[in-house]
Amino acid sequence: MISNPIPNSLRALVLGAWAGTLLLLERKRGLRHLRESKFVRDTRNLTVAAGAGVVMQLLEMPVALGLSRAAQRRRWGIAQRLPLPPLLRAFGAILALDYTLYWWHFLTHRVPLLWRFHRVHHIDREMDATTALRFHFGEIAISVIFRAGQMIVVGPTPAIVAVWQVLLFLSILFHHSNVRVPLDWERSIARLIMTPRLHGIHHSIEPAEVNSNWSSGLTVWDWLHRTLRTEVPQEHLVHGVAGMRSDADVQIGRLMTVPLTEPSNVPEYDGKPVRQSFDKLT
Ligand SMILES: [Zn+2]
Fold first, then answer.
1. What single-letter DSSP state applies at residue 3?
2. Which residue range is the domain that position 140 belongs to?
3. Does residue 4 belong to any structural domain of this protein?
4. Which of 54, 96, 158, 214, by CA, is between 20 and 30 Å from 252?
């Protein structure tokens, strides 16, 4: 098995420090008022996350790193053929990985089988940094097929994959967090990367709102594809999945089985382009 180019200890240090910072900021400067017990939600989210973490370590990382090494050896993928200096090629590869992830996120909302699993992440009725981690292990397992495709088409080196995964993790923790970034700062930051207010709109139960803001890293993809929604006051948002907001719906046992036991009920999507101004984020 190919080892991660970034030592586990360094990854744990960077991600742990970032998660700790966000947790502190959530306590000092919360964006949304959380009603449910933090302890109960954290326990639930981290239990669901544990399954996802195991699949990530044992399946997703080995496949991603193994295929990226094969891509490097055999010169598969766009990045391997770009006539650019290595640093610019690495930058291009990270951009391409981030862009293709936009499409994966879109698919998880549009393909009934994928939504069955992705909605487990969305069923959380409140949002904070632990929401970022609670994915059904089945979603991670299925996503490995897409990840393999990304490696073959984009052709990143193992080092690029490792750096991208860390950047992605930092971004996902940030935009799910319940941190109140000063509004003028957030309007500026949102021009570059996904932010808590923007992603809060994506976790709404309203179809028009959940079908927007699909970027996981750079927001330019939502801007380009006209799926950028900013004009929703945070206090108007109801988070979760319509019809699945009862206390029974959010219990761990139910979350683990819901992909197979409930109809897919994909939120309706009219496909109308929307590109609202970053300056209107509230
Ligand atoms: Zn989503």
1. P
2. 35-257+265-280
3. no
4. 214
Ligand 1 center from residue 56 Cα (angstroms): 18
190: DSSP letter: T
Centre of ligand 1 from the C-alpha of residue 80, in Å: 31
Three-class SS state of 227: strand
What's the distance, Cα to Cα, between the start and end of the chain in Å?
Answer: 47
What are the phi and psi torsion angles at 30 (to 5°)? -70, 140
Q: Output the CA 240–ligand 1 centroid distance in Å.
A: 11
Cα 118 to ligand 1 centroid, rounded to whole Å: 7
C-alpha neighbours within 13 Å on the C-beta side of residue 75 = 3
pLDDT of res. 2: 75
Q: What is the pLDDT of residues 194-227, one digit of tens each?
A: 999 999 999 999 999 999 999 999 999 999 999 9
As a whole number of angstroms, the distance between CA 56 and CA 107 comes to 20
Question: Cα(209) to centroid of ligand 1, in Å?
Answer: 11
Tell me, yes or no, whether 30 lies in a domain: no
Measuring CA to CA, how many Å separate 200 from each of 14, 125, 205, 212, 237?
24, 11, 11, 11, 8
Chain segment 109-140, per-residue pLDDT in tens: 999 999 999 999 999 999 999 999 999 999 99
The one-character DSSP state at 81 is H
How far is ligand 1, taken at its centre, from the CA of residue 38, in Å?
A: 22
Q: CA Rg, the chain, in Å?
A: 18
Report the 10 Å Cβ neighbour count for 274. 17
CA of 204 to the centre of ligand 1 (A): 10
The tally of domains found in the chain comes to 1
Torsion, CA 249, CA 253, CA 259, CA 260, rounded to 10: -120
User: Is there a domain that residue 226 lies in?
Assistant: yes
Residue 22 inside a domain? The answer is: no
> What are residue 204's DSSP bridge partners?
239
